[in-house]
Structure formats: C-alpha cells, structure tokens
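seq:
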Amino acid sequence: MIAKITSKSELTLNLTQHFVFDILDGDTPILTSQVVEAVPSNAEAEIKSHLDAFVAEYEVSESIEIGTEIV
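struct:
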C-alpha cells in the first residue's frame, strides 16, 4: 500500500500545513481524504508513520471474519 498526497493547505504562522492523502492498494483506494497536520520538513515521515500503522491494523482487520465467535 502507498499513501498519495492529494492536496495541502497554505503554510501557517505556526509553521504547519495540513496534508490530505489517500491510501491506495495499487490503483484501488482503500482510505481517502485523510488529513495530517505537520511541519513541511516532517510531513512525509508523519504520513509514513500513519500509513505503517494503518497497514498493520488493516491486515489484522482483514483476518477477522464476520461471525467469529469469541469465548
């Protein structure tokens, strides 16, 4: 999976921007219009961190089947 930045806000006086990104599996959107606020020099690392965490939980989510019984 990859994250693709789709838009960004203007740089604010507190030196941050809002970055909007989609998470894609190939060409298939998995999660769209996610927003992170970061200083521009750290934006890619911040988005990568969110992507990595999402992918890990997404894989677990996909392995849990509807109807699973927990005792």
